[in-house]
Design brief:
Layout lengths: L1 E4 L5 H15 L5 H15 L4 E7 L2 E9 L2 E7 L8 H10 L4 E7 L5 H7 L3 E8 L4 E9 L3
Antiparallel strand pairs: 1-2, 2-3, 3-4, 5-7, 6-7
Length: 144
């Protein structure tokens, strides 16, 4: 088990993890919106973020993508969730940032409790225009 910097060869696995995990976390999102986000992940988000992967043996099972202090994505394969992988990825990137910020859909029954459990607090909320869903903006100050 290890956390390492993302490599181009990880790209197909990252997209597969994202698709499977986001489907579980966001059953309320419409398929056309998910396809739009997937295209943006492939063309913009992953190429323009600093990304680390969590690898178990030779298999990537989770990743975190950062755009400065913003967590652009933190996803773990559903069958590997609840085993501390997400927390380890958070702790890893925390070493490089004074604070972490993230946006999470209010209806996300996986991500929202995860972030609150890990000390994030809500700073604001808004209605996401493309989905008409409530989004929470969270922050965690690094106390290390």
């Amino acid at each position: 088990m290890m956390i390492r910097t993302y490599q181009d060869k990880d790209f197909p696995k990252i997209i597969a993890i994202w698709l499977e995990a986001q489907t579980m976390a966001h059953p309320f999102l419409q398929p056309d919106f998910v396809k739009t986000v997937k295209d943006m992940m492939e063309q913009h988000f992953i190429p323009n973020s600093k990304t680390w992967v969590y690898q178990n043996d030779q298999t990537v099972i989770g990743f975190i993508a950062m755009m400065q202090n913003e967590i652009g994505g933190l996803f773990v394969m559903p069958n590997e969730q609840q085993r501390g992988v997400g927390g380890m990825l958070l702790a890893y990137v925390e070493k490089f940032h004074e604070h972490l910020e993230v946006e999470v859909f209010d209806k996300n029954r996986i991500g929202k409790p995860f972030y609150f459990k890990h000390g994030f607090i809500q700073t604001s909320q808004y209605t996401h225009e493309a989905t008409n869903e409530k989004v929470l903006r969270l922050i965690r100050i690094n106390t290390n």
